Amino acid sequence: MLPVPLDKFHAVVGPANVLAGVELSPYVVDGRTPEAAVFPGSLDELRAIVEVAAAEDIPLVPWGGGTAAAVGTPTAPVRSGIVLGLARLNRLVEHEPGDLTATAEAGMTVAALQTSLRARGQWLSLDPADADRATLGGVMAANASGPRRHLYGTARDLVIGMTVVTAEGAVVRAGGKVVKNVAGYDLPKLFVGSYGTLGIMVDVTVKLRPLPDDERLVCVRFERLKDGALAARAVMASDLIPNALELLDADAARSLEPAATTGGAALVVGFDGLREQVDWQCAELAALATPLGGAEVQPLPAETWGWLAHAAAAAFGGTPAAVMRLSALPTQVGDVMEQAVVAARARGLLCACSAHAGVGVVRAALFSPREQQELTPVVATLADWRGIERSGGGHAVLEWAPLAVKSELPVWDDAGAAGRIMQRIKAQLDPRNILNPGRFVAGI
Fold this sequence. Notes:
Uridine Diphospho-n-acetylenolpyruvylglucosamine Reductase, domain 2, Alpha-Beta Plaits, 22% strand
């Protein structure tokens, strides 16, 4: 194996923007240390780095804020490759308030983008976890989202254009800068959710919304999880238009105290719009929930929005043994959460669950009550959870786990025929297999 040509990278971006040795510790994933980390400051520099890597058969790991770096299968090839950091590509390129669109470089954090947009009365209706670290490119690559996806959708629903550098150094500009862009294939959506395996995003154009007059996050507590799930279904069947509908079991909801006066499961609901609308919807929520066993509607502080993504993983303190994302029909969310807890307890483990109840996405965190964590019950429980989802027609992704667990259990479900199509697309766009190789579904 030939050494990484650091001199060539130095020539492109300057020695100060190439890390090696102990400076690489923040970029260690699954026990693998990259051979270098390179940070381009322009499209031309990024393309030159990709061309060098392609010529030398060096794997590239695109890196934004690192918030989703551990998602996926450990890198397959013998070489660890290099991290291609996008932190220097962090400018707001263009904001057109009249068109409700903005273009920003991939390394700009979501929080920084929102601050710039809010100064002109607009926002990107996307709220991924850790917005102060998560970058726009990383969010697009993972198709990440948060509680507000209930009303506003995911990253895939908001992107209208992007600039991408392919594995061979070609620059592809897909989509456009206006919302009504219907010409040709919708290539941006091909790259969204591809985890950096098909191309490296340089900038992204997104559609925006005006800031709402008022926004409120409230909580209703229930003694039983099944009653909270019934209330969530009642909200979905009503005239209410929440922007978030989150269901948390008692363990995940514990850190809501003292914001709520009673324990048990929690239904967390967000509303936005005109102040009178929000007032009416909060009152209507109380009228729906009370007959189902709900306690008084309690307001939650604004910082709760960012906490919701971590509710399950923070339930018992310390680091969870694993976190799995389970997808099901919205009507099955409560049952899936209860079955996950039962499966964990049957093997002597603890479990906490939270869910985007309106879209059917459950995040289940597994904990070991013992100081010495045993691998066998953890892997067996995760396999049980995957079986629960398959029996209901859903799917599961091992969102986070130590390398020992990933080695025993597939991170991704078998994609079947879709996986074979994805492999063919990967072969066309990355024939040398240098972009995040082995990271994603079907070994791509």
